[in-house]
Amino acid sequence: MKIEFVLNNKSQIIEVDPARRLLDILREDFGLTGVKEGCGEGECGACVVLMDGKAVNSCLVPAGNIVGKSIVTLESFKKTERYKMIESCFLEAGSVQCGFCTPGIVMATESLLNENPNPTEKEIKEGLSGNLCRCTGYNMIFKGIHLAAKRGKGLW
Amino acid sequence: MVDGFRPVTLQETLNIRSQYNCTPIAGGTDLMVQKARGFALKPGFEQPLLFIGHLPELQKIVIKNNQIHIGSGLLLTDLLNSEIIPEIFKEAVRLMASPPSRNLASIGGNICNASPAGDTLPYLYAVDAQLVLKSVAAKRTVPIDKFITGPKQTDLRKDELLTEIIIPNKTFGVNYYKKVGQRKGMSLTKAAFLGLADCENKRITDIRIAFGSVSPKIVRSREIERTIVGKPTFEMITAIPEILAKYALLIRPIDDARSSAVYRKKVSLRLLEDFLRKIDKEK
Amino acid sequence: MRESISKPIQRVDGSAKISGEAKYIGDMHFENMLFAKTLRSSRVKAKIKSIIKPELPEGYFIVDKDDVPGVNRMRTVVSDHPLFAEDNVEYIGQPILLVVGPERETIYDIITHISIVYDDLEPLYTLEEAEVKSSVFTDYHYDKGEPDKAFAVAVTIIEDEYHTGYQEHVYLEPQGMAAEYRDDTMFVYGSMQCPFYAEGALTEALGWDAKRIRVIQTVTGGAFGGKEEFPSLTACQVAVAALKTKRPVTLIYDRDEDIICSTKRHPSIVRYKAALNQNNDVIALDVDVLLDAGAYNGLSPVVLQRAIFSVTGVYNYLHLKVRGRNFMTNNVPSGAYRGFGAPQTIFGTEMLMHNIALKIGVDPLDYKMRHMLRRGDPTCTGGKIRDIVKLPEIITRVTEMSDYRNKVQNNVKYKGIGASLFLHGCGFTGNGEQTIQGKIILKKSGENVILKVSSTEMGQGAETVLRKIVAYSLDLPIEKVLCEAADTGLVPDSGPTVASRTTMIVGGLLRQACLELKEHWDEAEEFEVSRSYKHPDFLNWDNDTFQGDAYPVYSWGANVAEVEIDPVTYEINVKKISAVYDVGMPIDETTLRGQMQGGIVQGVGWATIEVMTTDKGKLIQKNLTDYKVPTSMDIPKIDCEFVSNPYEFGPFGAKCAGELPFVGAPPAVAAAVSNALNVPIYSIPMTPEDLMEMDSHEN
Hints:
The complex is a heterotrimer.
Chain A: E1 2-7, E2 10-15, H1 22-29, E3 48-51, E4 54-57, E5 70-72, H2 74-77, H3 81-93, H4 102-115, H5 121-127, H6 139-151
Parallel strand pairs in A: 1-5
Antiparallel strand pairs in A: 1-2, 3-4, 3-5
Chain B: E1 4-5, H1 10-19, E2 23-25, H2 31-34, E3 49-51, E4 61-64, E5 67-71, H3 76-81, H4 87-94, H5 99-102, H6 107-113, H7 121-126, E6 130-134, E7 139-143, H8 144-147, E8 148-150, E9 153-154, E10 161-168, E11 174-181, E12 189-200, E13 203-212, H9 222-228, H10 236-248, H11 261-280
Parallel strand pairs in B: 1-3, 2-3
Antiparallel strand pairs in B: 4-5, 5-10, 6-7, 6-10, 8-9, 11-12, 12-13
Helix pairs in contact in B: 10-11
Chain C: H1 14-18, E1 34-40, E2 46-52, E3 61-63, E4 88-89, E5 95-101, H2 104-112, E6 115-120, H3 127-132, E7 136-144, H4 147-152, E8 156-164, E9 176-182, E10 185-190, H5 195-206, E11 213-217, H6 230-245, E12 249-252, H7 255-261, E13 268-276, E14 282-294, H8 300-309, E15 319-328, H9 342-360, H10 364-369, H11 391-402, H12 404-407, E16 415-425, H13 432-436, E17 439-445, E18 448-452, H14 462-474, E19 481-483, H15 502-519, E20 526-532, E21 541-542, E22 547-548, E23 554-565, E24 572-582, H16 589-607, E25 614-615, E26 618-619, E27 637-642, H17 660-677, E28 683-684, H18 688-698
Parallel strand pairs in C: 1-12, 8-28, 10-11, 14-15, 18-19, 24-27
Antiparallel strand pairs in C: 1-5, 2-4, 2-6, 3-5, 7-15, 8-13, 9-10, 9-12, 13-14, 16-23, 17-18, 17-20, 21-22, 23-24, 25-26
């Protein structure tokens, strides 16, 4: 099936089996290995990317569903001011350990702050409830997000 | 061999549905997991996919004749953002899966998947939701408890598509929902309880009770509800043993990887009791 | 002079990870590479009668026991696990062969068309069955004092039995390994904790000298012990495949596959007999530790050792009789997991003390404090507590933070508070460090200093901490201190990254080397200094009798947990954990806090929602839908502080830290649940199902 979509702000047309997972299209066809496969069943959030600005589990998205959509991955998001704020706050707060959950968490954070620039702690927890982290115990991730929301006034 | 269909209109979709063996897919959050085959592999669908999640006709949500018409393609996130959807229904939706999954999953998908643990189902059963099923030639409206015939089984015909869910535009005075999961976030349901009631002058004028995940189908009994309607609210506590005993006969849970039949039954009845106590305190 | 080394810096590998640029093994491509997938046993215990393979398309291979040039065994403490099954299979999921080829779809297809004819044999499903049948891998025992006499004169004897369950690591990055044979060398890349363990295993499997083998750790997405010995298996498998196919081979596990077949925490049954004197003090303890090692022994003997050497926790019991056994059952093999046997016995002992206190009507924390070790006391194996024990200060602080003394008297049903006291032996058990003889090299290169160590960064912050130790020792900015890759061709064997030894032992060697480097700094532009581990003279250990100093030093801690139990559903809400630790000296407070919080949350998970059970050799919870680890919604508030207690032989006073926080959380949560419902707790995980059952009996 011919699939037309926008990837990291660039128009793309690909010929692909419409059942192929967006996760594999990104990682294998476009070499965007910033997206990770942690479980393949929508239970860990390591594969989260933005689809029309919202966080989605790319392991659950078949190619047929990305037609006309705008997909944003970390590879392009990392060039933005918002990313730089998230990165510096994450580094300060100790939000990263092994790093495997981190790309999904960064994208989920962008999705959350995009919708809600001033989240409460409860809203941060709920917004991140689709992302597993086994290393940090989460608190330092919340701290990083809270810091980014506070210091990033005007960015979101 | 066609690898998939991505029609532009609902009419086109129904045409395809009537002509080909294909698998309708909206968000894919159930189907993509069911057919997953492992690291870096595409899922193993046996039939070409029929993509319906994008169809504009399935995205509407309107109030008509004091009923809310919900397009089957509406995302769970859209339901949460809608001002029309009753808050108690949103409570159930809010606890489903996770935010990135809710941004993909459709209400129609949850219904047609017909899992006994489906989280939209207790509310839809409790408010007598009607389902609109369309095919090329026909349209029929079926109550949800007739549509779902068993675990993962529905009355959906080979050429049909669920297009709309109709619920009353109504909120209740007493609202009670509890999902018991394996943990607080991102969890399947071990047992779910929904209780709705209206009271006037300390009498119960309307009561709906539904249990999820504790039987092959959602448990609701209009018969038992009718015996409660008309009773004074302050009699609820004394009525508890009798009402619980009646529901105990209908609740038939199983042991599985997530919980035990004993617990599921006990917790369901405890939640029912808690709901009845809540009514008892109603002014 | 710089500020305190504890002051946090930004971790050195952070940016690469946050930006998604860090490459894990699943992200890596090798030219001409082939994919591999494992065909596994579907039977619990059976003889393989025949394997019927379809005709293979061009370019596809089957790799099995006949392709192993050396020994078909995974080398570890006990090398009993076959790389590829031979005549028998002993657990569901045991690897039988690899299918290797250029297209994953085709590999999947081939695997589904391989059929195996089995002759089922009689399996052992449970620890209880194994005990009846004496299916024992290892049997250890040691005594202290005169336990028989003590029991003879005891005023009261209490008998209890405690159970703990499986735990799966759920490192976010599944197991992955790749091998490439070129330039007469086998290069193996992958997610792992111990490159030299893999190297050793490869020398046996290939029958080659280590000079022809190079193991390179790739960025590792979490491990927690699950990538300590297990990667030796996959490393050998892909190496054999690379040799056969003459192309690079990559093997990445599916999550379900990882859950079913990779090593898990040992389930345990610990039986206690406590002899109490007229004051109700415990004067003698008779402990029988039973661990379920699963189908193969592997490194379980060392887990068993730590379990039995931790059995007295922070307490000084005059007389001891300790037995520990590893049992063989036809379940997935158990292996290394954060805590490594200590969590099982410390849970048991903490709950024993807690339950005795309840029986005699004393506050559990007060009762525990009556038995605490002090400097100069003998350890359970007749060694010595040589350093000051800061438990009194730790307890004062943690009870202040949590308001324990007031809350514990509240007696509000469904709300509870409970405390745990615990320790962790730093470094390898017994002779381990002497056997490994860990070595480090420090190289001056112009303005820069390069660390050559085999310690691996897996998220815990090892690279940051070790570089910081060197930077502070030499008064250099961290940017001038670099770390060589964990590549067996480039670094010496500093020992494995396990046992909470990296900061104290490897960091300690680096610090010593720095002092020498500093002395000779101006003498040349480029030179190297090396150091090997030297066991302190004052430590004694007899590995045959298990007598002496099992560990050179201990880290200590106390936790107070507060829980609320839903009165209708019995769901446990762990509201808060207050924690105070003595780890000597924090080398980086942010990194350390990260370990403490992560360890606490894993401990809370093991005690509450991480249910993993088997039924006739089958894992019931075999994917992330059914096996639940804590999400952001499930975590308690955590308040964490440290007391300073610099260790003379640790770099800047540092001791061990990585496993300690895991050990303390489960007994604290269990004590709090016990307080909330007024019932004794004997097993974890504590599920709503269990609690509802327990509470109904009380009513």
